[in-house]
Request: fold
Amino acid sequence: MFELLLNQQIYQRVVQELVPAASKFLWITTADIKDMHVAAGKRYRPFLAVLSELVGQGVAVRLIHAKEPGERFRKDFDRYPDLVSSDLFERALCPRLHTKAIIADGKWAFVGSANLTGAGLGCKGPHRRNFEAGFLTDDAASIEALMEEIDQLFLGEYCRKCQRRQFCPEPLDGE
Reply:
């Protein structure tokens, strides 16, 4: 299955339905990262609360981003002890990362243009959000290839040959 998702559909299908349904692991890659909020009934809450709940349920969450998060994200992040101290939550920074993808349980993946921001993946209204597009798939071969690429990045396989290393605050290869 390859399902084209546009604009608000991305938020509805991926963020509201599929992310909370992850039961083993959730990997998120994004270039930009901001203090994104999601609907919780008639109120809104930080997306970090969703990630924290998943970690609390035993779901391993990996978040890789290209830019340092803003002050509001960092302030919210510190409010969730499961994200700060749990071995189930991993966060890494790679300035060259431009991939925007969400993978859950190795069973489905979303790949598209949307960053982990309110205007990209968040619950902004239709007249305030970015114009975004992406594909949701359960194609095993595609998901396996994407996971291999993300895993190599996360493990620092590209660091030694990276010609932008001087701009990297924390090379993933640990050197």
User: Anything to note?
Assistant: The mean pLDDT is 94. Residues 140-154 form the longest helix (15 residues). Helices lie at 8-18, 47-56, 71-77, 81-85, 140-154.
